[in-house]
């Protein structure tokens, strides 16, 4: 038995003594036959336990959870102290109609000349069509939802013939899309669109219910044990605004991975480089938006699953405060780290979709006491003043711990531009106990996922799962009840550290990911992939390169999930290979308005550098 470690109370931690230490993870990289063999071994009762115990020891999980005295009491779900009201915002009514909230969000947006964009009179580099572009085209009779639907259906037929399969959607019904589009077209002909979102094409991740489509979680069987009878709450709110749902988007099976690899249906490819991953687990939602086929998509985010693929695909992804959106009707509706969030090509479209879907569940309103939802009033002259007052926290050693300096240099350049152009202030911060935060997250999300899946896996369905999912579950089964409680004690400590930081800054700024889109190994397409860093320890998503463990996809992601904080990924440029780089903005609890305001400013600074993805469809004009 090693010597026990005793942590001082969180409020006694000496920040001047905190030293940043880059993570090193020890685990194998496996694909194909070697992965299959490993799964059979790790699932074996005796030797499997020995392997997982060894891995946990080598990666200090046992030391942190079982050999450490943690003085704090457990925090079993995020609990937030009262927050100050955000300046220059417009309040939204949670109990009001979604279309009314969307109308208020529309009034928060700055002036936009859709006519010039349509005729091409506006000099600009590549840009995605915005929701307001679609609305202008529909209202001006330059296009109809039915016309756009046919172009979308043609693109899906093209994708269905790809070899090997690389589907954006794993549940798609052309006639259902035509039916929704025809109803929307009729509303425009009658002059009665339901909202600015009427006729807008939206994809739904396959772990969120969207009737009549099944919710499989990208498995081959989950819909058989959990039939879909109605829309998830968030989907229902969008449907009331006139949205056209195109189907269920591909994803990493059950959300238990961050690459987007899926050997059941085929792995979605990155629109900027089809030989690379999209990131995950919301791979299909990010890729379908980046390809121009949908204005927006809904994803879930329990470990960066909205922000990672948004960053790797060059789009915007919002992870809301835990409890801000109602999770009812999703496969991950009983956890403490997950949210449903929007992905779109630009910040204003994220705002419009967010306005529609927000609204806490009755239980969360009682337990979390959410602050009233609001949006930044970007159309107000006071907005620039509010922007200039923002204090941006940067933990430099952490910020610079990336696989390629292209990432830290690009993100750092944007921070400098925010200071120079808008008057923001950058403040150096220190975030203690980052390794403990990662351990607390993997124990939390792993235990909660296992709890939801175990009743169904006991029926023999576990052998139908992909090999990397089964590797994850083998690790999760090794967690004990005391491990889970210890993780929640760590959660309280880490919440304290972050709430102290937010007394000094308004937003924490990091790169979204520590690397750009990784290459898809050909051997991973049929049987999946795990290097244990990639999959089994998916909360420590690493890529093995030349035998060295380097920058990972989840390095900067975890705090927003474990602590329930709002965060957004905004594209800010490209690396030397032309792959997108994302900047992450993390706000205090219920601080969506502040990060959206800052994200809009970041987006404006980067507008001229936007590149058209290699895989792109103009379904509005049909070019």
TrEMBL record:
Protein name as annotated: Uncharacterized protein
Top-rank taxon: Eukaryota
Annotated source species: Rhododendron molle
């Amino acid at each position: 038995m090693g010597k026990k470690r005793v942590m001082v109370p969180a409020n006694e931690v000496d920040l001047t003594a905190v030293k940043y230490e880059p993570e090193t993870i020890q685990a194998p990289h496996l694909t194909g036959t070697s992965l299959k063999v490993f799964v059979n071994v790790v699932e074996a009762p005796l030797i499997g336990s020995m392997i997982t115990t060894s891995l946990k020891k080598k990666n200090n999980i046992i030391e942190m959870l079982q050999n450490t005295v943690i003085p704090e009491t457990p925090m079993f779900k995020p609990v937030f102290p009262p927050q100050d009201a955000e300046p220059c915002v417009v309040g939204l009514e949670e109990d009001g109609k979604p279309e009314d909230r969307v109308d208020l969000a529309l009034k928060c947006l700055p002036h936009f000349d859709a006519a010039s964009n349509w005729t091409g009179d506006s000099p600009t580099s590549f840009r995605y069509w915005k929701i307001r572009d679609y609305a202008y085209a529909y209202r001006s009779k330059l296009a109809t939802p039915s016309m756009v639907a046919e172009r979308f259906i043609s693109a899906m037929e093209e994708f269905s013939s790809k070899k090997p399969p690389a589907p954006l959607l794993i549940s798609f019904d052309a006639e259902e899309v035509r039916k929704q589009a025809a109803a929307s077209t009729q509303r425009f002909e009658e002059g009665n669109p339901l909202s600015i979102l009427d006729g807008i094409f939206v994809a739904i991740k396959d772990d969120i219910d969207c009737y009549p489509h099944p919710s499989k979680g990208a498995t081959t069987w989950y819909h058989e044990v959990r039939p879909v009878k109605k829309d998830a709450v968030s989907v229902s709110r969008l449907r009331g605004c006139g949205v056209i749902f195109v189907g269920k988007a591909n994803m990493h099976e059950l959300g238990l991975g961050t690459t987007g690899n899926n050997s059941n249906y085929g792995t979605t490819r990155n629109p900027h480089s089809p030989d690379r991953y999209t990131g995950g687990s919301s791979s299909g939602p990010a890729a379908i938006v980046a390809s121009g086929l949908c204005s927006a998509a809904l994803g879930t985010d329990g470990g960066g699953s909205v922000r990672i693929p948004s960053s790797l695909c060059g789009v915007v992804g919002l992870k809301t405060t835990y409890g801000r959106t109602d999770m009812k009707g999703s496969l991950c509706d009983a956890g403490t780290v997950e949210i449903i969030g929007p992905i779109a090509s630009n910040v204003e479209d994220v705002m419009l979709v967010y306005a529609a879907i927000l609204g806490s569940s009755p239980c969360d309103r009682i337990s979390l006491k959410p602050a009233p939802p609001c949006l930044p009033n970007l159309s107000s002259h006071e907005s620039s003043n509010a922007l200039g007052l923002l204090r941006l926290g940067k933990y430099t050693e952490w910020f610079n711990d990336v696989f390629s300096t292209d990432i830290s240099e690009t993100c750092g350049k944007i921070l400098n531009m925010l200071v120079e152009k808008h008057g923001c202030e950058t403040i150096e911060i220190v975030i203690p106990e980052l390794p403990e935060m990662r351990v607390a997250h993997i124990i939390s999300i792993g235990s909660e996922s296992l709890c939801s899946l175990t009743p169904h896996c006991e029926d023999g369905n576990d052998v139908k799962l992909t090999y990397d999912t089964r590797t994850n579950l083998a690790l999760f089964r090794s967690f004990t009840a005391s491990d889970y409680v210890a993780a929640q004690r760590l959660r309280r400590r880490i919440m304290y550290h972050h709430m102290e930081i937010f007394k000094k800054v308004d937003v924490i700024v990091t790169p979204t990911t520590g690397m750009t889109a990784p290459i898809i190994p050909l051997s991973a397409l049929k049987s999946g992939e795990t290097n244990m860093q990639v999959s089994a320890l998916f909360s420590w998503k690493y890529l093995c390169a030349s035998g060295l463990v380097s920058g990972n996809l989840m390095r900067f992601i975890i705090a927003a999930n474990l602590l329930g904080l709002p965060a957004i990924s905004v594209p800010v440029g490209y690396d030397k290979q032309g792959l997108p780089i994302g900047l992450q903005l993390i706000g205090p609890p219920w601080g969506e308005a502040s990060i959206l305001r800052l994200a809009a400013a970041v987006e404006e600074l980067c507008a001229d550098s936007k590149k058209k993805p290699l895989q792109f469809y103009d379904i509005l004009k049909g070019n």
